[in-house]
Predict the structure of Malate dehydrogenase.
Amino acid sequence: SKKPVRVAVTGAAGQIGYALLFRIASGEMLGKDQPVILQLLELPVEKAQEALRGVMMELEDCAFPLLAGMEAHSDPMTAFKDTDYALLVGARPRGPGMERADLLAANAQIFTAQGKALNAVASRDVRVLVVGNPANTNAYIAMKSAPDLKPGNFTAMLRLDHNRAASQIAAKTGKPVSAIKKLAVWGNHSPTMYADYRFATIEGASVKDTINDQVWNQDVFLPTVGKRGAAIIAARGVSSAASAANAAIDHMRDWALGTHGEWVTMGVPSKGEYGIPKDVMFGFPVTCEGGEYKIVEGLPIDEFSQACIDKTLAELLGERDGVTHLL
Ligand code: NAI
């Protein structure tokens, strides 16, 4: 049987953590033959550590055959020791009256410390997914704080936007979501993201031609996907958690086990693709194989799409400029 791999999860006692850990431990993320050791990080305060102990009791009570070990941590320097995968979910939420600059600064502090800890103690091949918002910029900060690790191993979660877009297209066309291929989401995990179905196919037919409605694209589809998080908060009273955890599982599974030629969306550091400045953590269509992702290159960008990409890029550059002095 396979040697266990180490999976670190931060914010482990939060609501995404609660929807995520059981699925990792059951083998949904890395395969039904891959034992895992969970290294769980929570804030060093009694309430958070107590809640984490409760979650760990439930994990024990599932008696997952693949769960080869489990640890509770309050310090990233121990939580990330030798870790092969790191899911950075915990972040500082925007409190009442908190300015954007304060939010960026609070998260810069968290993700600088976590990036440094990964740099110091994680596996040299650690694959990092940042879920905690602002996800792209937090991933950028962690990457910049870990100069000895491969920059390309730091990624941000755009997969929830990708999955939301796929399900909207499935509903619009009346086709199964599994039939949709070649969907792309560009840019920031925020309402400015650009979900792009120009290349997408459904049962082999062009999605764009099938829908054939640019007004729907602009006035219904893009705002629905972009504001989905807010719609869920309005309906549920709390933010999306199960669907976010599901997207994290999808992202890591596809990265580790491959997409067999199909496109998925990942936030990854640009190497200059599509004119996105180097190192900007940007949502791109990618394929994954052998544990590596590859940006799908050479797609034509029309005027409407370029304007959408420029807008989400401008937002990301603004966030980057807001944290540069903190790195
Ligand atoms: P939550 O508030 O229920 O849980 C967050 C947990 O993280 C808490 O238990 C807290 O104690 C812990 N935490 C905070 N700072 C930490 C630190 N420095 N180290 C370790 N643990 C820390 O929040 P929830 O709903 O689980 O969401 C987590 C994050 O994910 C939020 O930032 C949210 O905005 C983001 N999110 C991102 C999505 C995406 O698509 N990228 C989708 C949905 C949520």
Observations:
- The two ends are 43 Å apart (CA to CA).
- The longest helix spans residues 100-121.
- The mean pLDDT is 97.
